Amino acid sequence: MLRCLQLGLSLSDLDSLEIGEVLDMQTEAMNDGEEYDQLATQDDFDRFA
Q1: Are 31 and 23 in contact (CB under 8 A)?
Q2: Given 1, 17, 35, 42, which residue has the most CB atoms within 10 angstroms?
């Protein structure tokens, strides 16, 4: 519950979200401070697809 409060989620928010959505939000919040040496470009995405 504490982690949800740290994300700014209320109990009513939790009622409308699935557990996977909450876990995704938590993962994204943990990655917010990360720095990446190389970011994908549009060409990288085009080659992937």
Answers
A1: no
A2: 17
Query: Residues 6 or more apart from 7 whose CB is under 8 A from it?
Result: 22, 25, 26, 29
Number of residues assigned to the chain = 49
Listed residue (38, 36, 28, 34) closest to 7, CA to CA: 28
Proportion of the chain above pLDDT 90, given as a percent: 55
Q: Model-level pTM?
A: 0.62
Q: What's the chain's Rg over C-alpha atoms? A: 16
Exposure on the CB side of residue 13, measured as CA atoms within 13 A = 10
